[in-house]
Input
Amino acid sequence: MSRVAIVTGSSSGIGAATALELSRRGWNIVVNYSKSAHQAHDVAAQCREAMVVQADVGQDVECRRLAQAALDRWDRIDALVNNAGATKFVPHPKLDELTDEDFLRIYRVNVVAAFQMTRACAPALKESHGAVVNVSSLAAFLGTGSSIAYAASKGALNTMTYALARVLGPEVRVNAVQPGVVDTPWMSAGYGAERYRELAARYAANAPLKAICKPEDIAETICWLLEGGKMITGETIFVDAGFHLATPR
Output
């Protein structure tokens, strides 16, 4: 029987690349989206076996419904990829442009949603001896990124990864990936095309591998954590062309 993966926020970017790569490897996929229905169905159409479920993972009842949809269709869950994310693009020095409502909204999607999804899937994941991968960010390590609220939320997600790895073992492994700059329309739209090009060029110049990642690079690492790495849990893995080692030039 094929293994089953739920990938939240999988209508585009890293989530879509992960869904497609897992499908290529023979997995059944739950493609989740909040608003981008057309894109989600496009991703599902490229998968070998997939279902599309609209759900706002910031709401616990929606997380439970999403998990149940997978169980109703395939009677198992082997992997959960907590990829859904939110931010507000605010230059870090502009403290007054980031409200408490912004913080809470970003935290709810980036941290609380990942907890709620993991909790909803935990019984099935324990039964299948499955795995969870949280999509964090290099911003959690450097305190950089699209906003201070975003960086703080990803730091919290890393801490939660460690805690969940402790309590869900030995049946379930929980890890995180920390991408740096990734070549996606989301980043270009958020920063603006010109600023994003400058950011990407500066990033590549300083990264030891002299490149920026594509969504498929992140997906490859996520799939490895789900399918391999049987003795790896509670890890946060940089997938950033080595930028966390960089000395700015």
